[in-house]
């Protein structure tokens, strides 16, 4: 007799490249809830005003734990981006990386990823997962799969 509660396929966490293959689109989805990553006022006094005053020239990067996922949350050229915070190469902290020209560069060995798609700029492969993100008042919210 089979156990109706048993799942025939054991679930496992996706490897980073598998996660990235499924999540290289930043378009919000109707079927996913929004999760608060952090509040601008708690992150840094005056941050919301600073970013709003000069969105094209200001930047901000912060690591955020949302559920069981570590994200690099980035404000760059007037846009918010959410990317898997653990570098696909060897696990470097992307929230400590350098952000310029629409890319973040990992501080450990210099792999560079496009903020929009998670594409690694040398291999042109979508190696780093990216997620929908929005600013809702002073809350920064993300959707996770
Ligand atoms: S761990 Fe990021 S480039 Fe090596």
H/E series: HEHHEEEEEEEEE
Silhouette: globular
* Helix count from the secondary structure assignment: 3
Q: Could you tell me which ligands this complex binds, including any ions or cofactors?
A: FE2/S2 (inorganic) cluster
Radius of gyration: 17 Å
Distance between the amino and carboxyl termini: 34 Å
As for the number of domains, it is 1
CATH 4th-level superfamily: Rieske [2Fe-2S] iron-sulphur domain
Characterize the largest beta sheet: strand count, sense, and whether it forms a barrel: 4 strands, antiparallel
Unreliable stretches (pLDDT < 50, length at least 5) are none
Characterize the structure shown.
This protein has a single domain, classed as Rieske Iron-sulfur Protein (3-layer Sandwich). The chain is globular. It starts with 15 loop residues before the first helix and ends with a strand. The chain has 145 residues and is α+β, with helices and mostly antiparallel strands. It contains three helices and ten strands. It has helices spanning 16-22, 40-43, 47-53, and strands at 35-39, 60-66, 69-76, 79-84, 98-100, 103-105, 112-114, 130-131, 133-136, 139-142. 12% of the residues lie in helices and 31% in strands. Bound molecules: FE2/S2 (inorganic) cluster (FES). FE2/S2 (inorganic) cluster binds at residues 87, 89-92, 106, 108-111. FE2/S2 (inorganic) cluster (FES) binds at residues 87, 89-92, 106, 108-111. This is Protein containing Rieske [2Fe-2S] iron-sulfur domain protein. Its EC number is 1.10.9.1.
């Amino acid at each position: 007799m089979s156990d109706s509660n048993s799942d025939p396929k054991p679930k496992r966490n996706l490897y980073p490249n598998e996660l990235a293959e499924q999540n290289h689109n930043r378009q919000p989805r109707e079927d996913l809830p929004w999760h608060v990553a952090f509040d601008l006022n708690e992150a840094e006094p005056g941050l919301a005003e600073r970013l709003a005053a000069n969105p094209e020239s200001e930047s901000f990067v912060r690591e955020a734990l949302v559920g069981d996922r570590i994200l690099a949350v980035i404000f760059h050229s007037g846009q918010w981006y959410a990317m898997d915070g653990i570098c696909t190469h060897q696990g470097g902290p992307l929230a400590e990386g350098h952000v310029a020209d629409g890319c973040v560069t990992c501080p450990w060995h210099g792999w560079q990823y496009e903020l929009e798609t998670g594409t690694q700029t040398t291999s042109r492969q979508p190696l780093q997962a990216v997620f929908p993100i929005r600013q809702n008042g002073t809350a920064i919210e993300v959707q996770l799969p």
